[in-house]
């Protein structure tokens, strides 16, 4: 019985495939030998059969080729922060957000204006209310003959309670919603306007 090697690097397994293939060992036998040394979690027979023709065609590189795609957001600082937090308070670990360390790069997340992302940490209900207020999708709106209709404002009883009107009623502007969402939320709650949002 041979000594088994746990958790080998992919390039190590590919190097063994390349070596055995150079000795004219058949793919099925290569896979059997890999299983014998590396155990059940080694590369599948199908993957061995994928690599053998590549080496036969002259490939010499056993490492993964560079691929385009989203870069990794995990770095040493984030890992250290996770370890430190988990050692102090394991439940707090859930509150660490990778997005805090690496904000989204897409332009839609950086814009300021209608449809912009509001950066607010709070209860889901409050986040939803702010998102509705910023996007003109209040829970009380409806469509009538293709037009967006809002309930009449309870504060003034004569104008539709559009998001802009709600902000006007409490002397706020749209920029406040983007730059000071927690303040907007408190003002809306203080004026009993949350049921309209």
TrEMBL record:
InterPro entries: Mos1_HTH (IPR041426), Transposase-MT_Hybrid (IPR052709). Residues 13-58 form the Mos1 transposase HTH domain. It holds the Pfam family HTH_48. It comes from Araneus ventricosus (Orbweaver spider). This is Mos1 transposase HTH domain-containing protein.
């Amino acid at each position: 019985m041979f000594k088994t090697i746990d958790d080998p690097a992919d390039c190590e397994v590919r190097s063994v495939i390349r070596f055995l293939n150079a000795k004219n060992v058949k793919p099925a036998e290569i896979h059997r030998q890999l299983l014998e040394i590396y155990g059940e979690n080694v590369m599948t027979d199908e993957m061995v059969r994928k690599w053998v023709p590549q080496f036969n065609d002259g490939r010499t590189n056993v490492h993964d080729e560079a691929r385009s795609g989203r870069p990794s957001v995990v770095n040493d600082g984030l890992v250290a922060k996770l370890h430190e937090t988990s050692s102090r308070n394991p439940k707090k670990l859930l509150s660490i957000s990778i997005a805090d360390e690496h904000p989204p790069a897409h332009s839609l997340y950086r814009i300021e204006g209608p449809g912009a992302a509001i950066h607010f940490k709070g209860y889901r209900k409050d986040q939803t209310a702010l998102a509705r207020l910023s996007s003109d999708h209040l829970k009380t709106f409806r469509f009538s003959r293709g037009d967006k209709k809002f309930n009449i404002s309870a504060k003034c009883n004569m104008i539709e309670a559009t998001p802009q009107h709600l902000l006007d009623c409490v002397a706020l502007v749209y920029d406040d919603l983007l730059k000071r969402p927690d303040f907007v939320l408190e003002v809306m709650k203080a004026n009993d306007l949350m049921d309209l949002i």
